[in-house]
Amino acid sequence: MSSTSTNSEPSSSTSRPSFNQTVTSSTQNFGAPGSGNRVLKIVTSSSVNSGLSPFGQNAASTIRDHHEREKKEILELNNRLAEYVEKVRFLEAQNEKLAADLKLLQGS
């Protein structure tokens, strides 16, 4: 009976620049040395549906969250500004009324 020898080359993993597919392959030799070894090459492929690597997804999520916070902050600041403008207009109208009352009192 022949003995079986397994010779494994290290697996390699490569990614395309777009981070949408990872290919892993490994090669193994089966059979006794010198007896017409069979070579088995296994290639597996996995795709990420979003087209982004996990790091890209995290970055996109971080940017989206930051954008949402900025949007809320701008809306809050806009509301505060509108309140200040309204208050200034009210005080200007009150000032005009007081100035008119003062003028009326001084003219009597």
Automatic annotation (TrEMBL):
| Keywords from the named record | Coiled coil, Intermediate filament
What InterPro entries does UniProt report for this protein, alphabetically?
IF_rod_dom
Q: Where is this region: Disordered?
A: 1-37
Q: Would I find Plastid among this entry's keywords?
A: no
Q: Which Gene Ontology terms of cellular component type are present?
A: intermediate filament; nuclear lamina
Q: Which GO terms describe its molecular function?
A: structural constituent of cytoskeleton
Report the record's Gene Ontology biological process terms: heterochromatin formation; nuclear envelope organization; nuclear migration; nuclear pore localization; protein localization to nuclear envelope
Polar residues compositional bias, start-end: 19-30
Where does this protein have coiled-coil stretches? 67-108
IF rod domain location, by residue?
70-108
Low complexity: bias regions: 1-18
- Name the UniProt record assigns to this protein: IF rod domain-containing protein
Q: What is the lineage of its organism?
A: Eukaryota, Metazoa, Ecdysozoa, Nematoda, Chromadorea
